[in-house]
């Protein structure tokens, strides 16, 4: 991992927005909720013990602006101290900007990625079979379903046509059917942030990054802000069986969120989030470069619809939740042999960026090589109690 700078972190408009992060404080042996401002990083944990608690405010951005906090240092120094290979454990470093919220993810929310999920299923996790199947699937259902509203009469008609042609798939069911796919991505507090290693299951041989917008949602179902996310995906595991989704998605360090939470205010709104263009860059030690993007404006289901399908009378989240919105990015560029497509190699540097949200940078390692996750909910509660913050 190369040294990170503030340029590798902040949105294009710098600290104009309401930016929230979490920082590990060695002197407290625990995390701090921080406000990132033009004149430094300020610990606001005395007012908001968790990011979840801040998000529960009626107006989180206004509440944070009214909280002065205690300055703990310059953002530049904290960012530079975050990568594990260069970290001084006696100095603060960045964490993922999420704590007690449940980590949820929506899948198959873009037409392009939906087609790739169908291909994975038919290839049964074998990348060598994917290209031929891709051509056949495209011949049957086309490659542009972006104007098809999930659950509509037109979508249900297409569903019946595909069933009649024996071309139906469980991925098409959640892609154009009335019910969205929403699953639990990883355990609470297990996310890694920018500058950290992100994890791949050591047995996976076909995998990819998934650049996504992550919404922060209160226990009342109010969307209060957003961050970037990498919903690391194992195409071989899920392709073999959809019942392996939990193994494909939930591994040590496989959930990356950051670099900061940007709360909604006059400078950044839900409508701005709906128009986000998210860029992806992968650089390998072998000289390989992959670029891609995902445009939220092309999502098949509105973000509010996905949130409403996640929380309500049938499911509650007392500490709120974050929701990965899915991606339209599906890598097909060959990395090695023709027809083999893309898969990660050790030490790939993945950068996910959006002008309004900054950059989320991770180095790819196998999950057993990444820093172990040891600080859970019990440890957080004990630490906050010892510091007399709860």
Percentage of residues in strands:
25-35%
Instruction: Provide the succession of SSEs.
Output: EEEHHEHEEHHHHEEEEEEHHEHEEHEEEH
Here the CATH topology of the largest domain equals: Fumarylacetoacetate hydrolase, domain 2
Residue windows where pLDDT falls under 50 for at least 5 positions? none
Domain Fumarylacetoacetase-like C-terminal: 222-364
Family: Belongs to the FAH family.
Organism: Bradyrhizobium canariense
Keywords: Hydrolase, Metal-binding
Describe the structure.
The chain is an alpha+beta fold. It folds into two domains: 6-107 and 181-387, Fumarylacetoacetase-like, C-terminal domain (Fumarylacetoacetate hydrolase, domain 2, Alpha-Beta Complex), CATH 3.90.850; 111-176. It is built from twelve helices and 18 strands. The chain has helices at 51-55, 60-65, 75-80, 111-123, 127-141, 153-164, 170-176, 235-240, 245-249, 270-274, 303-308, 377-386, and strands at residues 18-25, 30-37, 40-43, 70-73, 93-95, 102-107, 181-186, 197-200, 207-208, 211-217, 223-231, 233-234, 255-263, 277-283, 289-295, 321-324, 349-354, 358-366. Strands 1, 2, 3, 4, 5, 6, 7, 10, 11, 13 and 16 form an eleven-stranded mixed beta sheet that branches. It has a five-stranded mixed beta sheet with strand order 8-18-17-14-15, with no helix packed on it. The protein has a two-stranded antiparallel ribbon with strand order 9-12. A hairpin with a 2-residue loop joins strand 2 and strand 3. The protein is globular, with a radius of gyration of 21 Å.
